[in-house]
Design goal:
With 339 residues, the protein is mostly beta strands. 2% of the residues lie in helices and 39% in strands. The chain contains 1 helix and 24 strands. The chain has a 4-stranded antiparallel β-sheet with strand order 1-24-23-22, with no helix packed on it. A 4-stranded antiparallel β-sheet has the order 2-3-4-5, with no helix packed on it. The protein is globular, with a radius of gyration of 18 Å. The relative contact order is 0.16.
Length: 339
C-alpha cells in the first residue's frame, strides 16, 4: 500500500478555532459595481468557445490565459489548441497544447511566467495530469500518469486546480466527485517531488467534498474551495487547518490578487434539495478581502437557471481590476469592468 500522510481534524476543532459568521452582511446583499463586457476575447474566425473553467492572468498583469475545451466540453478527438493567450484588447496572441489535453480545468501562472494546467478527466491514454508550460508552449514538467486514475503520490483522479507557492512548491487539489474517488490536496516540491497530502471525504476540518479551487494570499496561506461543503478552508503550507469561511458561498473558483482582494465564483448554489443545495445563496462572483473575510461586492449570475452549473466557474482579475469569468455552462469568457 502506498504511503500517504493524511491530516484530519474533528468538527469540534473547527468550532473551537474559527468563527465564520456572515462578516457583517447578509447573503447576496452587496452592491455590483461592475458592467459586463460580452465577447471581449476574439477567437479565430470559424472557432467557437467551448466550456472553460481555466483562466489566469499573465505575469505582465494585463494578458489573460484561458484553457478552452475545444468548442465543446472536451477536447477528445479535437485538434484545436486549448491553451490561449489574449492581450489586453482581447486579441489572441498565442495558442498551444493541441492533442495534449482532454479537459483543461484549472490554471495558474507562476512568478516566472510559466503556465500550469490541470487535465481533469482521463481516457485513451490521456488525462489525469498536471502540465507546466513555458510561455511559448514547451512542456517543462508533467505530474501524474497519462490516462491513469489513482490516489498515490504520482497519480491523480480528476485534478481540479493548481497553485504555486512563492518558493515554487506545487499544490494540486484532486477529486471532482462528492463521496467517491479522491478528495485531497497534494503538495510537491518545485522539482515535482511528492512531499505530503491531506484530506479525505467528509465535512470536518481538513476534509473535502470536491476541492475545486486553490489560491494563496500574501501571507502564504492556502485557500481551498471546498465546493460541495459550501465553504472555503484555509491552511498553512503544511496542511494545518487555520479557518473556514462560508460567506463567499459555494466556491467553484478563487483568485487572490497582490493586494489580498479575493474573488470567488459560485456557479452551483440552489435552494433545491440535492446537488448544489445551499439555500439562501445566489450564484455569482463575490469580491472582498482575504485579510478579514469581508465581502464587499457581488456580481450576480444574470441567469442562474435550473442546470447544475451556470456563469463563471474560473475567475481571475488583472492589474487594473478587471474581472474575468470562465464559464462552463454558457461556454464563454466574460469580462467585468468597473462602472
Amino acid at each position: 500500500m502506498l504511503h500517504r500522510t493524511l491530516l484530519r481534524f474533528t468538527l469540534s476543532a473547527v468550532v473551537a478555532t474559527t468563527a465564520y459568521a456572515q462578516k457583517d452582511a447578509a447573503p447576496n446583499s452587496q452592491p455590483n459595481p461592475y458592467a459586463t463586457v460580452e465577447n471581449w476575447a476574439k477567437l479565430p474566425e470559424g472557432r467557437t468557445w467551448g466550456s472553460t473553467s481555466a483562466v489566469a492572468v499573465d505575469r505582465d498583469g494585463k494578458s489573460i490565459w484561458v484553457g478552452e475545451r475545444c468548442g465543446a466540453n472536451s477536447c477528445a478527438g479535437k485538434t484545436d489548441p486549448p491553451i490561449l493567450k489574449f492581450d489586453s484588447s482581447g486579441k489572441l496572441v498565442k495558442s498551444f497544447g493541441e492533442g495534449m489535453l482532454l479537459f483543461p480545468h484549472g490554471m495558474a501562472v507562476d512568478k516566472d511566467g510559466n503556465i500550469w494546467v490541470t487535465d481533469g478527466q482521463g481516457a485513451a491514454g490521456k488525462g489525469h495530469q498536471v502540465f507546466k508550460f513555458n510561455p511559448e508552449g514547451k512542456v517543462l514538467m508533467t505530474l501524474g500518469k497519462a490516462g491513469v486514475a489513482g490516489d498515490g503520490p504520482d497519480t491523480f483522479n480528476q485534478p481540479n486546480a493548481v497553485a504555486i507557492a512563492p518558493n515554487g512548491d506545487i499544490f494540486i487539489s484532486d477529486g471532482h466527485t462528492p463521496r467517491t474517488g479522491n478528495a485531497r490536496v497534494v503538495k510537491f516540491s518545485k522539482d515535482g517531488k511528492f512531499i505530503r497530502q491531506w484530506g479525505g471525504h467528509g465535512s470536518a476540518a481538513g476534509e473535502f467534498e470536491v476541492p475545486h479551487a486553490l489560491a494563496f494570499d500574501s501571507k502564504g496561506r492556502l485557500f481551498v474551495g471546498d465546493r460541495a461543503n459550501n465553504r472555503i478552508q484555509i491552511f498553512d503550507q503544511d496542511g494545518k487547518f487555520l479557518d473556514q469561511w462560508i460567506q463567499f458561498s459555494r466556491p467553484s473558483g478563487i483568485f487572490i490578487d497582490k493586494n489580498d482582494m479575493i474573488y470567488v465564483t459560485d456557479s452551483e448554489s440552489t435552494d433545491r434539495d440535492g446537488y448544489g443545495h445551499n439555500p439562501g445563496w445566489k450564484r455569482g462572483i463575490r469580491i472582498g478581502s482575504a485579510k478579514d473575510g469581508k465581502v464587499t461586492a457581488f456580481i450576480p449570475d444574470p441567469s442562474p437557471g435550473s442546470g447544475a452549473t451556470s456563469a463563471a466557474e474560473g475567475v481571475a482579475a488583472d492589474a487594473a481590476g478587471n474581472v474575468y469569468g470562465a464559464e462552463v455552462g454558457p461556454k464563454a469568457l466574460k469580462r467585468y469592468v468597473k462602472k
